[in-house]
Structures are given as structure tokens and as C-alpha cells.
Specification:
The protein is of the alpha/beta class and 255 residues long. The protein is 27% helix and 25% strand. The protein has 7 helices and 12 strands. Strands 7-8-9-10-11-12 form a 6-stranded mixed beta sheet, with helices on both faces. α4 links the parallel β9 and β10. The longest helix has 16 residues. It is globular and about 45 Å long. The two termini are 34 Å apart.
């Protein structure tokens, strides 16, 4: 759960370069919080387990979306912060200071669980232990000894984390493929949109893929819906403000 400090610039700076004329906004974010909000907007009942510091900005925004935050703990330290630069084409660079996220302690979790790697490995492993279905979005990628029911990664993350009973490999504007034992079993392309900010596109994709699966949809349809959700998020500015509803996903697929 992060506070996103976002600067919109015409182009991303080169190493050692200062670029002026930016537009700045403070937006609720963090991969766990983004995915919780995305799943809630898609119609799921969501309980978020996380940790924030003295600044409850990120927590308030998630609670306003109807997410159960009773399992979110607070301490007197710093909340997580993401420093994000977004250029005119929607490309971004992100640096995350984990803050309270790094202090999230392991605890048992049951039911369908969606997790990412902005929290400690031991906390992820504890969450997976008793889950009836466990999805890991391995971002930011680092080695972890786990084989989730569903692994979601992009090209670069796949080089670090590749173990999963099913692997959803995202390919940006090219869409995504679903792999079982290294063999492609489904492929989808996103609808055409004008990219504005790709910050939470992966979170929208991941949440929609999991929710669609839990709704009983076939994997091919779930993957198509996930690509549509990611495309919608990329067409809007900001993390949580960009996340689509189920109705919006239905509408763009029917267009």
C-alpha cells in the first residue's frame, strides 16, 4: 500500500539530466492496494491484508472502494512511497520505497489469495500455505521458492520467476499468453486504446484474470477480459483512479 508521487513530463530524463515543466499529483497506489481495488470494482468481495505507517492516505482510499481493511495494521513509521515519472506516451519509470510494506508480518490466510512482491518473501509464503487458490504477481521480481497456482509476470519478471502451475505472461501492447508447462494454451490481444499512463495496467490485468477465473470463466475468456482491463487502465492517468469496473470491461469488449 503506497502513496504514489507522480510527475507527468513530456519525456523521461536521461541519467544525470533534469527535466522541468512537470505536473505533480499524489495518488493512492501500491500493487496490493491497486489489485484489491481492481478486484472490488470487478465485483469481488475483497479483504486486504497490509500495513501502513502514520499516514493513512492509502488506507482511506482503499476503504472508500468497499474493500475490507480490518486486517490492515498501522505503525508509527513511514508508509510505502512510489516515485513515478510518466512521459507523454504513457511510458513510466518507478522507484518504490517500501516503508511499512516491508514490515508486514507473516500470517495465515485462507480462501482465494492474490499476492505480489512488494512485501517480504516469508509473508508471501505464509499467505500461500493455506490458500485454496493462490496467484502470485511476481513484481517487483526477485527469487522466491514457490509454485503458485497462477503466476503473472511480464517478460523481464519471467527471467527471474518462472515457476507456476499456470503462467500468464504479459506482453504489453501485444497482449498476453497463458502457458502450462511452457506450452501456450491461450493468447489474447488488448483492444486499441490511446495509452496515457501504464502505472496500474498490470494490476488491472492481474485482478481481472483472477476474478474472471473465480467466476468460472474459461481461461481464454479470462485472459481476454484481463487484457481489456489492462488496456482501460493504461488509457487513464494514475494508479487506482484508472482501474475499470466489470461493466467497463464488458463494454470495451462488445465495442
Amino acid at each position: 500500500m503506497n502513496v504514489d508521487m507522480v510527475a507527468r513530463v513530456k519525456r523521461l530524463p536521461k541519467p544525470g539530466e533534469t527535466v522541468g515543466g512537470a505536473e505533480f499529483r499524489r495518488i493512492p497506489g501500491g500493487k496490493g492496494a491497486n489489485q484489491a481495488v481492481a478486484a472490488a470494482r470487478l465485483g469481488a468481495d475483497v479483504r486486504l491484508i497490509g500495513r501502513v505507517g502514520a499516514d493513512a492516505f492509502a488506507l482511506d482510499a482503499v476503504e472508500a472502494e468497499g474493500v475490507d481493511v480490518t486486517a490492515v495494521t498501522r505503525d508509527d513509521g513511514e508508509s510505502g512511497v512510489a516515485l513515478i515519472f510518466v512521459d507523454a506516451q504513457g511510458e513510466n519509470v518507478i522507484v518504490v520505497a517500501p516503508g511499512a510494506n516491508a514490515r508486514l508480518e507473516p500470517q495465515p490466510v485462507t480462501g482465494a489469495v492474490l499476492c505480489q512482491l512488494e512485501i517480504p518473501n516469508e509473508t508471501v509464503l505464509a499467505a500461500a500455505r493455506d490458500a485454496s487458490f493462490f496467484c502470485l504477481n511476481a513484481a517487483p521480481a526477485r527469487p522466491i521458492d514457490i509454485e503458485p497456482d497462477l503466476l503473472v509476470v511480464n517478460r523481464y519478471e519471467y527471467e527471474t520467476v518462472s515457476r507456476g502451475k499456470l503462467v500468464a505472461l504479459t506482453l504489453g501492447a501485444e497482449g498476453a499468453v497463458l502457458l502450462r508447462d511452457g506450452q501456450e494454451i491461450a493468447r489474447a490481444r488488448p483492444p486499441q486504446v490511446d495509452a496515457v499512463d501504464g502505472t496500474a495496467a498490470g494490476d488491472a490485468f492481474t485482478a481481472c484474470l483472477v476474478v474472471s477465473h473465480l467466476e468460472g470463466r474459461e481461461w481464454e475468456e479470462a485472459l481476454r477480459r484481463a487484457c481489456a482491463a489492462g488496456a482501460i487502465a493504461a488509457s487513464r492517468f494514475g494508479a487506482q483512479p484508472s482501474l475499470p469496473t466489470a461493466k467497463e470491461v464488458d463494454e470495451i469488449l462488445a465495442a
